[in-house]
Give the backbone structure.
Amino acid sequence: TRVVRLVRVLRLKNMRELTLMIRGLFGGMPTLFWAFIVLFIVVYALGICMTTMLGNRETRKQHSEEFEDEMEMMFSSLDLSMLTIFRCFIGDCSTSQGKPLISMLTEAYGGW
């Protein structure tokens, strides 16, 4: 009986906006799903590139010990590279000491 009462409340005309919002939320789920898939593919591809280029200490040019430690901590495996890239996407592109990662990479490898 409680479910029937809930359905009656949701069918009231003054709750029309709420039902429209809920329908819009569920109607947008496929689009949101594909947006997450595209984001994952981009982060995965960039993670492979960054792990290949920066993840192995032997293949990198030698820099300061601080730089080497930071690169090892952020790009030594695919999952760490993906986490670092996702953090950069959402705006937290910094090292563990708070230095901007972009400026460290630009200083080490040059910029445009």
